[in-house]
Design a protein that fits this description.
The complex is a heterodimer of chains A (about 210) and B (about 500). Chain A has about 210 residues and is an alpha+beta fold. In chain A, about 25% of the residues lie in helices and about 40% in strands. Chain A has 3 helices and 13 strands; from the N terminus they run H-E-E-E-E-E-E-E-E-E-E-E-E-E-H-H. Chain B has one domain. The radius of gyration of chain B is 23 Å and the shape is globular. The chains are: A alpha+beta (about 210), B mainly alpha (about 500).
Chain lengths: ~210, ~500
């Protein structure tokens, strides 16, 4: 029985070590527009869409969107993000030739959070693109070539630089753990959860050893 | 003072009679439930906003909710929900919980506004529920009265975690009665429940289901005691207390009534004629204590709260929409059958297999507002593990077939509890389909049967006999721990990464 418990613990530790080392692109945030594959806006060559009231999170190095190209290679895209008073925050773009689907558009690294930002995306040609989004909420406003789109908004996800393992992301996760919770618990919630689970596992193993021998 | 000391001494004696292992298992469940309560962001447990609103109504106005013209919560709750981005996160697995200091500042700004905590009387989907859970949750709500909505919710979640711990304690006691002889098997079953991720997730949130799990475990424990020790007045009273209080928590426990009735009838039959008087007193206590809280609830509804005796009805079906499906008893029976079993020469009512998608996958893990799951391979592995456990259980039952034959009546009671609960869920599901065209069923509705899940674990471990049994039990518990930790990892990934 002790061997089974030891093997089980070892397997759990090994699985979590593997999980912690797994690398992939990570989000810095999202505008919480519902995830949908339908097009909220179509950009013809040379047209530009701008969406206001975006929360541009710190540590953003790319935008992620779902874009359709009608089966053709993707057009060249350019992105610019400005603050509430029009100050430029970051720019970026994607050369032509990408494949339709979930697309990552690199931008210059942003180190501070800005509320009320406006994200603009321009189709530089040679073909039109359809941008995924959903129906409009009460916060965001979207325009295509200066015209307000009454019933649509784009979904923007903001991505951190490169790929990161969970281990690298841990300080960020710990920080996010402290947000949006009761002031009574938010600063120590992550540590308490860890201690409680260590206690629960230790206690369970002690119980099994006590009862089984 | 003397009375107080006496009561304290009696409680102390009662606690000491509970085996140490049972208390340890309950502590494990408490720690796990509290950890879940810290991991899952506020209001991300199903219908937590509605249950919070019900508690607020009880605590702030001293009455139960009633449907308002518009479904509106208190300004304080509504403001908090908007500030934490609740409506953008639920049902959207790609959207995280608040991730920036800006959002935190918005949440704190709402808290500083000191918005009214009094609502308009509506508690959304919880409005028609009986009040017991909410009355209990009003205590932590009041204790945290000086705090924000999030502070109160955090305090209320602690009570839910405590209910989870008591549930596991009752599961242990049930196993003691059901499977005497192998102490270690009781711990195996109870710990499998303590680490069951869906149970842990629910125990970490504010939802009246938490109390129904406790009451369900209590009823089955009392029934097992009755089979082992006879239908004494004490055992009858315990059945009545748990069932009666369960019914004024949520009417889901109506599904247990046929099983309890059979248990009481068998108890009377076994006691006849030698211990007839004692058994009759036991049956009277069971019936009386089941009926008393329900009658009190009906009377309060009618006389004090001026609403229908059973608001929302039970399984009653309106005509539905003019264009939608219309009620048919045959279709209802078919619906209930197909909700749990493959269709047999019936018109298919589901485009998927509910046994696999709703119940199995849901029980293994579907969290949040049903918006995130494990990777698909986890369910495949879980299926093999489940088949292995069932094979071990069957082996143990075959090995103990003589004892099983002697206890067929008891087995029938547990089977009837399962069937009764399934029928109750099926009736509600059909009703929801007819009236709103929406899905009702979720795996968490089966958790009042956690005792039977624990029994499967304990039986599987016992199949290994004295030599291999403890090792099989240890393996099952380690699997449960790994399962639970993995569920917490995907929860952290869902909301914070």
């Amino acid at each position: 029985m002790r061997r089974v418990l030891a093997c089980g613990l070892l397997a759990i530790v090994a699985a979590f070590a593997l999980l912690l080392l797994h690398r992939e692109p990570r989000r810095s945030g999202s505008d919480t527009t519902p995830y949908a594959t339908g097009a909220a806006a179509v950009l013809n060559v040379g047209e530009r869409t701008c969406q206001g009231q975006e929360l541009l999170p710190a540590d953003t190095a790319a935008l992620r969107m779902t874009i359709h190209t009608y089966g053709k290679p993707g057009a060249r895209l350019s992105v610019s993000v400005t603050g509430p008073h029009g100050a430029p925050l970051t720019t970026g773009g994607l050369p032509a030739g990408w494949r339709q689907g979930v697309v990552r558009i690199p931008v210059t690294h942003v180190s501070t959070t800005t509320a009320g930002a406006t994200v603009c995306l321009r189709d530089e040609g040679p073909s039109p693109v359809a941008l995924a989004g959903d129906s409009r909420d009460q916060f965001h406003t979207m325009q295509v070539d200066g015209r307000t789109v009454e019933d649509g908004q784009l979904r923007y996800e903001y991505m951190r630089p490169g790929s990161e393992s969970w281990l690298q992301l841990l300080p960020t996760v710990v920080y996010r753990f402290s947000l949006g919770k009761s002031g009574l618990v938010r600063h120590w919630a992550w540590a308490a959860a860890l201690v409680l689970m260590l206690f629960a596992v230790t206690m369970a193993i002690r119980t099994i050893l006590r009862e089984g021998t | 003072m003397g009375a107080f000391t006496q009561i304290r001494a009696r409680i102390g004696a009662l606690v000491r009679r509970v085996p140490k292992a049972a208390r340890m298992c309950a502590l494990v469940a408490l720690a796990n439930g509290l950890a879940w309560s810290l991991i899952v962001p506020p209001f991300q447990v199903p219908d937590e906003n509605a249950h919070y609103a019900y508690v607020a109504q009880v605590a702030e106005r001293g009455t139960v909710p009633r449907p308002a013209r518009e479904e509106m919560l208190s300004p304080a709750e509504e403001g908090t929900l908007e500030a934490i981005g609740f409506y953008g996160v639920i049902g959207e697995p790609h959207d995280p919980a608040p991730f920036s200091q800006r959002q935190q500042q918005a949440i704190e700004a709402v808290a500083r506004k000191q918005l009214s905590t009094r609502g308009y009387g509506d508690a959304l989907t919880a409005t028609n529920n009986p009040p017991l859970y909410y009355v209990l949750e009003a205590i932590p709500y009041k204790l945290a009265a000086g705090g924000t909505v999030l502070d109160r919710l955090a305090a209320m979640r602690v009570l839910s975690a405590l209910m989870g711990a008591v549930t596991v304690l009752l599961v242990y006691l049930f196993l003691m009665e059901l499977l005497p002889g192998r102490r270690w098997a009781w711990s195996v079953g109870a710990l499998m429940v303590a680490f069951q991720p869906l149970f842990g997730f629910m125990s970490g949130g504010v939802n009246s289901d938490d109390l129904i799990y406790l009451m369900g475990a209590g009823v089955l424990w009392a029934v097992a005691r009755t089979f082992r020790r006879g239908l004494t007045p004490a055992n009858g009273a315990m059945i009545g207390v748990f069932l009666g209080l369960g019914l004024v928590t949520k009417f889901t426990l109506l599904g247990f009534i046929p099983a309890v009735a059979l248990a009481v009838a068998l108890g009377l039959w076994r006691a006849w004629p030698q211990q007839r008087a004692r058994a009759l007193r036991g049956a009277a206590w069971a019936t009386g204590l089941t009926a008393a809280p329900v009658l009190a609830y009906l009377a309060l509804n009618h006389l004090v709260w001026k609403r229908g005796a059973l608001p929302g009805g039970i399984g009653s079906v309106s005509s539905g929409s003019a264009t939608g499906p219309r009620f048919s008893f045959g279709a209802e029976l078919s619906h209930i059958w197909q909700l749990f079993l493959p269709p047999l020469g019936m018109r298919h009512q589901f485009a998927y297999v509910p046994l696999q998608r709703t119940w199995f996958k849901g029980f293994i893990g579907r969290f949040g507002w049903l918006d995130y799951t494990f990777p698909e391979w986890v369910y495949s592995i879980a299926l093999y593990v489940a088949l292995l456990v069932i094979a071990l259980v069957m082996a143990e039952l075959v090995r103990r077939r003589q004892a099983l034959a002697r206890r067929l009546g008891e087995l029938a009671v547990y089977a009837l509890a399962l069937v009764g609960l399934c029928v109750e869920i099926g009736v509600e599901s059909y009703r929801e389909t007819i009236i709103n065209g929406e899905l009702f069923e979720q795996a968490r509705y089966l958790l009042p049967l956690l005792c039977l899940y624990a029994a499967l674990g304990a039986l599987a471990a016992r199949a290994g006999g004295r030599r291999w049994g403890p090792a099989i039990g240890a393996a099952l518990v380690m699997l449960a721990i790994g399962h639970d930790l993995f569920a917490q990892a995907i929860t952290i990934s869902r909301y914070y990464a």
